[in-house]
Amino acid sequence: MRAPIVVGIDGSAHAWRALDWAADRAVRHRLPLLVVHGSRALLDEGTIPPDALQRLAGEREDLLGEARQYALKLHPELDVETRLVPSDPGRALVAESEHADLVTVGSRGQGGFEGLLFGSVGLYTAAHARCPVLVVPRSAPYPSDAPAQIVIGVEGVDDERPFIEWAFAEAASRGAKILALHAVGGEFSPRRRVIEDLELSESLAGYRERYPDVPVDRLVSDRTPAQALVDASENAALVVVGARRRRAPLAGMALGRVNHTVLHHARCPVAVVPNHD
């Protein structure tokens, strides 16, 4: 069975935009779409009368059915299934990620300290999923209106190949170009620019040959990595970053400070690709 594109749905505007992007990718990659709704309110813990719990489950099933019909209206050829999960939404999506090609989730776009303190479904999923996660902000355009450019932030370290490979494959499927950003976070001399540009070229070695139809632009920036990626997101279909996960008390910090900032402030969807196999 082909691994599905999973999308979390809760009836909010940002979740419907995530559904747009999930359905679009499922069509381009000829994969099934699995629409998931998770809610702790559906747990049978004896706190809700059985008839009320049944009505609640029925309402959520209706939401899933509406989402399925919406996806089929956009793409009649899609194979779409739904799943109602009595669990926390983030945990439900992480569980589905074990057998998924991609998990897609909407972002409420609540930046600042409150979002950092309490986290979100998107941050939790991105920090723990076993497959790539696409976090779609409310500001994202419809997939058909997105610029034909995918942005990647390249540091020049050994474990970047999984997300670079994913970005090139996605660019090939979209007919998009790659903008490879290498941000050094400060002014640098002409000599250092040459050195940094050479390192960026080495990080991209081999991809031009494997993806000859994907144009590549390189940019060495004096901005910080987070600033450079957020700025570039204004003219991108996607920003693709790698997930070097680490132990941390907060889900966003488990992804690293740069990824956390990009997820909160990017104007386009952000794909977080884990660096494990």
Number of domains: 2
Name given to the CATH architecture of the largest domain: 3-Layer(aba) Sandwich
State the CATH superfamily name of the largest domain.
HUPs
Pick out the low-confidence regions.
110-119, 247-253
The DSSP helix count reads 11
Q: Which percent band covers the strand fraction?
A: 15-25%
Just give the CATH class of the largest domain. Alpha Beta
First-last Cα distance: 19 Å
Category from helices, strands and their pairing? alpha/beta
Question: What gross morphology would you assign?
Answer: elongated
What's the order of the H and E elements? EHEHEHEHHEEHEHHEHEHHE
Rg, alpha carbons: 19 Å
Main β-sheet: number of strands, strand sense, barrel status?
Answer: 10 strands, mixed
